[in-house]
Write a structure and sequence with these properties.
2 helices, about 15% helix, 2,3-Dihydroxybiphenyl 1,2-Dioxygenase, domain 1, alpha/beta, 4-stranded mixed sheet
C-alpha cells in the first residue's frame, strides 16, 4: 500500500438536544475539552480533544441508539462497535470512573492473546468505549 495513514478522529452522530450533555460527559469523565466548534451544512460540529485523541460530535441525528449494559451482547449488528482509549493505569481509571457514577459494561478482563487488560463503559449516549492499559500485562519476549 502506498497510502500513508494515521489516525485523526472518531466521529459520533448525536441529536442536537444531546450536544451539551455529551460535551459535559466527555469533559467530566475523561478530561476532554472543546478544541473547536463550528456550523456547516446546517450541522454543528464540535471537536473534543484529550492528549492526541480527538472526537468529533455531529449533531445531525434524529434519535438515540438503545444503550447497552453488556459489552458482549452489544456486538450485533455489524457496525463500528467501540472506540478504544489507552490509559496509564486501568484499575485507577475504573475506580475514578466509578466515583463519577460511570458503570462498567464489561471487565476488567484479561486478554492474554493481546497481553492486555481491558474494561468497557458506555458514554451518555450509549457509545461503547474500551479502556486498555497496554503496558500492564503486555507479553514480553525473553
Amino acid at each position: 500500500m502506498t497510502i500513508r495513514i494515521s489516525h485523526d478522529h472518531v466521529g459520533l452522530s448525536i441529536t442536537p438536544d444531546d450536544l451539551d450533555a455529551t460535551i459535559a460527559w466527555y469533559s467530566r469523565t475523561l478530561g476532554f475539552r472543546v478544541e473547536q466548534q463550528f456550523e456547516a451544512h446546517g450541522t454543528t460540529y464540535t471537536f473534543l480533544v484529550s492528549g492526541d485523541v480527538r472526537i468529533e460530535l455531529m449533531n445531525g441525528a434524529s434519535e438515540r441508539q438503545v444503550p447497552t449494559t453488556d459489552v458482549f451482547t452489544s456486538m450485533d449488528p455489524a457496525r463500528l462497535h467501540h472506540v478504544c482509549l489507552a490509559v496509564d493505569d486501568l484499575d485507577a481509571a475504573v475506580a475514578e470512573l466509578a466515583d463519577l457514577g460511570v458503570e462498567l459494561i464489561g471487565g476488567p478482563l484479561e486478554v492474554p492473546g493481546a497481553g492486555q487488560r481491558i474494561a468497557f463503559v458506555a458514554d451518555n449516549l450509549g457509545n461503547v468505549i474500551e479502556l486498555t492499559d497496554p503496558g500492564n500485562g503486555r507479553a514480553t519476549s525473553s
